[in-house]
Amino acid sequence: MIRILTRAKSYKQFVNKMLENPLFGRGAKTRLAEFLGVQGSFISLVLSGKQEFSADHSIKIAEFLKLDETETGFFMTMVQRDRAGTPKLKRYYQQQLDRTIKEQSEIKVHVQGKEVETSEQDLSLYYGSWFHAAIHMAIHSAKHRTVAALVAYTQLKESQVRESIDLLVRLGFAQFDKDTVVPIDRNFHLGKRSLALRSHHTNWRNQAVRSLDDYHVDALHYSLVLNIDSETAMKIRELLLESFRKTHILIGKAKIENVYSLCVDLFQVFG
Q1: Is the pTM of this model over 0.90?
Q2: Domain boundaries, given as residue ranges, for the chain
Q3: Which of 234, 249, 254 is CA-nearest to residue 110?
Q4: Nearest CA to 150 among 119, 120, 183?
Q5: Do the Cβ atoms of 77 and 97 come closer than 8 Å?
Q6: Mean pLDDT in residue range 130-145
């Protein structure tokens, strides 16, 4: 629902859109009026632009619409912005909204998982070579938890495998149990400002190019250059972000079997 909120031009437009949603069924405006303890005509006056909801009304509307904590905060700020009496105050609330929209645009907001704090130096080491992340994923399979098994599975040098295992243990992603390396359920996610992000993207796009030479029937490679307007591009971006969330749900339910790579890009080529 946060996506509908962030795309709405005003809080009234959002409320109108939600009340028209089949989720709330017929007579949603009447039920909202009863919930707020006001006349139905008052709801119509507000949504037509002739009146305003108070802060008390607004927080109850958020409850009626079943908004979560983040959505409620965004909605209440929208109300304050739209009710602001001066341009300066309106800009102040708009800046708060813009900050939330920017935070929501970060992929990590849409990805569930246990995250661990780590230094930029550690991030640079982990993402500096593609095989560290690959081995990290490989050891989640019980078949690939010894040095010999990892060498056979990855076709990497033994020295590279040992280097990765040592790094994973040091970062708290794995631990030794005799001669077996066991994964620990922790992960970190790169923010857009991380210096290691460039290496991470480059590493796996290089691997994607390499996979073109090694035909696999289950591989998927898709590249498209298109000319569209900015609004459509943002809609596509939102669809991709939503698909990432659904993808991670699927990953969480999947059986541990093989290591795959998924790379997705959408960017403006010129300008």
Answers
A1: no
A2: 2-105
A3: 249
A4: 183
A5: yes
A6: 93
